[in-house]
């Protein structure tokens, strides 16, 4: 047992319950939502009310905790989350880190290793450690997860700085790491390599978006190095995304091979996001009928059972494994 920081304060890890490990409440571009809401469709009061309703329904369906993986670069707003969580009896765990597939934001690109300002000290380490130990933006809400991303462009200089900063913040605080990794280009392996170079115990790392592939060699390579993997885009089907049957089938196969204790489930869903214009969302696959907060409880779990996945393994993926991820928190190196 260990303490876990959430939006509403610390809880014991035994209270995590059923947990979706990679979700978002809102993904926003702050300047657009504040200055041009008519373009994005943002309505603060309406969207907050919708989020409260959707998370309330999720709690009723038996999910006790969500991990909001919205970090710098995605419009993270802790006071807004506090307002929502005050109206919903669900645990919301928040993350720190930086979302980029390539370059760093202007300030960070000029300060730190390789920047114009003459210092080798990486400012992101101090930023992330402060978010974990003191709280985010003066709210007192502490991050309980560290996030880094590697997508199609690969390990660019900016991306590498983020990964190494996350690794060092992890070593200083013991906070678990959860990643965005492009499965099509097997980016999780690169993340593991850099994290291992930094001395990170890979059993304290969750490689995300692994449910985007049926490449068992890739998935087993990640698992055999000890990491958890996120089968975390249930609801996104067709086109570039795998089908429902493929996503369910690969999880069932991993369970059959004995890896259920290293798998977690989620949707990678937001109550609202403004990155895809309203008129393009159907073509982008974002209006899919199954991409909603109750999809895993209503359709995925029954489908896994039909594929022969044991209830004990389903409990591992939804309840036991998230608790185990968080019970490593606080063990600094």
Uncertain spans: none
CATH structural class: Alpha Beta
Q: Radius of gyration, rounded?
A: 19 Å
The SSE order reads EEEHHHEHEHHEHEHEHEHEEHH
Strand content: 15-25%
General description of the model:
The chain is an alpha/beta fold and 333 residues long. It has a single domain (3-327), classed as Metal-dependent hydrolases (TIM Barrel). The protein has 12 helices and 11 strands. Strand 9, helix 10 (244-256) and strand 10 (263-265) form a beta-alpha-beta unit. Helix 3 packs across helix 4 (78-85) and helix 6 (123-133) crosses helix 7. The longest helix is centred in the N-terminal third of the chain and has 17 residues, at 44-60.
In short:
By secondary structure, the chain is of the alpha/beta class.
Keywords:
alpha/beta; 11 strands; globular; TIM Barrel; 333 residues; two-stranded antiparallel ribbon; 12 helices; nine-stranded parallel β-sheet
Draw up the topology in text.
Layout: E1 3-6, E2 9-12, E3 19-27, H1 30-35, H2 37-40, H3 44-60, E4 65-68, H4 78-85, E5 91-97, H5 106-110, H6 123-133, E6 145-150, H7 157-173, E7 177-181, H8 187-197, E8 205-207, H9 216-224, E9 228-231, H10 244-256, E10 263-265, E11 270-273, H11 295-306, H12 311-327
Parallel strand pairs: 3-4, 3-11, 4-5, 5-6, 6-7, 7-8, 8-9, 9-10
Antiparallel strand pairs: 1-2
């Amino acid at each position: 047992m260990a303490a876990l920081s959430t939006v509403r304060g610390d809880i014991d890890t035994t209270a995590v319950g059923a947990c979706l490990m990679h979700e978002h409440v809102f993904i926003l571009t702050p300047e657009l939502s504040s200055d041009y809401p008519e373009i994005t469709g943002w309505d603060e009061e309406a969207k907050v009310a919708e989020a409260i309703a959707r998370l309330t329904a999720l709690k009723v369906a038996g999910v006790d905790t969500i991990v909001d993986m919205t970090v710098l670069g995605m419009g993270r707003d802790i006071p807004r989350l506090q307002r929502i969580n005050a109206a919903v009896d669900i645990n919301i765990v928040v993350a720190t880190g930086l979302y980029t597939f390539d370059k760093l934001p202007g300030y960070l690109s000029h300060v730190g290793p390789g920047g114009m300002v003459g210092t080798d000290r990486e400012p992101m380490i101090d930023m992330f450690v402060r978010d974990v130990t003191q709280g985010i933006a003066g709210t007192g809400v502490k991050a309980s997860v560290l996030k880094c991303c590697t997508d199609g462009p690969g390990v660019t200089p900016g991306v590498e700085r983020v990964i190494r900063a996350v690794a060092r913040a992890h070593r200083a605080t013991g906070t678990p790491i959860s990643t965005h990794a492009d499965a099509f280009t097997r980016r999780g392996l690169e993340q593991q390599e850099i994290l291992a170079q930094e001395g990170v115990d890979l059993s304290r790392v969750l490689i995300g978006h692994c449910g985007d592939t049926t490449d068992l060699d890739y998935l087993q390579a990640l698992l055999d190095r000890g990491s958890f993997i996120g089968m975390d885009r249930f609801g996104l089907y067709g086109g570039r995304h795998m089908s429902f049957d493929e996503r369910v089938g690969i999880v069932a196969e991993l369970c059959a091979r004995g890896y259920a204790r290293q798998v977690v489930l989620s949707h990678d869903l937001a109550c609202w996001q403004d990155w895809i214009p309203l008129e393009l969302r159907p073509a982008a696959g974002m209006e899919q009928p199954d991409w909603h907060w109750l999809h895993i409880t209503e359709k995925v779990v029954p489908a896994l059972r039909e594929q022969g996945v044991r209830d004990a393994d389903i409990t591992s993926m939804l309840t036991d494994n998230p608790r185990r991820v968080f019970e490593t928190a606080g063990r600094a190196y």
